[in-house]
Task: structure prediction
Amino acid sequence: MRSRLDACAALRQHRFVMRPLRLKLLGGLVLAAGAAAFLIFTASSDCTTVTGSNEVVVNVSAMRPGSARPFCYTDDTGKRLRFVLARGVDGNVRSVFDACRECFAFHRGYRVVGGELICRVCGNHYPIDRMTEGKASCVPVSLPHKDDSGIVRIKTADLKAGDALF
Result:
């Protein structure tokens, strides 16, 4: 009888030792899956593809004040260069690369949410009217453009000059 009690006690002790190990493994798997889902969700960049040989032409006449849209241009080497066009509440169009001077090495860019650009790496928020000012060393990289009554023209040479950001 005693040996049977000893066997049951040993089994209970084994179960208590194994339970924390299983919980740690399960917790690690859940944490890894959550981190992977977060990175996939925050890294996705839905952009409108634009083309052009010497310049890219984008009609922004329907863009509301306080809004922004991401765009993509693929250069001759196949590299996708991303940029953001935004119309401030003052009606002026602003343009920046979808990259920050500090965080560009991570190739994550910005999210456009509620009239702001939000850096996907450091989380800094940039209101559209002040998106070229930046905070500390995290500053959206400006992109030259011309606005002709709602038609924005960007030289492809200016886009290609920013290829190191991507």
Observations:
- The radius of gyration is 25 Å.
